[in-house]
Design goal:
The chain is mainly β and about 120 residues long. About 0% of the residues lie in helices and about 55% in strands. It has no helices and eleven strands. The strands form two sheets. Strands 2, 4, 5, 6, 9, 10 and 11 form a seven-stranded mixed beta sheet that branches.
């Protein structure tokens, strides 16, 4: 049973930083990519960043490029999202997700962690 558990959310002032972590368990993820998404109230879910589990290749949405960094620790089976220069519009519930490298849809999702950025 695949389980993704996010942690690290909270309240931060604008301009500050926060590090989210996603603990992944239940299978070997070598054939998977891990993504971070967010959803703000009344808005659609937004893709933020993705990393390939094996090679560590990354890709970012333009909205967060240069401010957010995705990384993974294979030994700890975690995927982190380091967020800096946070803005009030970054306020959302943040989710990690997993899909097969050759797949299209994300099959597994965490429960989400709330990030609130105050102005």
């Amino acid at each position: 049973q695949v389980q993704l558990v996010e942690s690290g959310g909270g309240l931060v002032q604008a301009g500050g930083s926060l590090r989210l972590s996603c603990a992944a368990s239940g299978r070997t993820f070598s054939s998977y990519v891990m993504g971070w998404f967010r959803q703000a109230p009344g808005k659609e879910r937004e893709f933020l960043a993705v990393i390939t589990w094996s090679a560590g290749n990354t890709y970012y949405a333009n909205s967060v490029k240069g401010r957010f960094t995705i990384s993974r620790d294979i030994a700890k089976s975690t995927v982190d999202l380091q967020m800096s220069s946070l803005k009030p519009e970054d306020t959302a519930v943040y989710y990690c997700a997993a899909r097969l490298v050759i797949g299209h849809d994300y099959n597994y999702w965490g429960q989400g962690t709330q990030v609130t950025v105050s102005s």
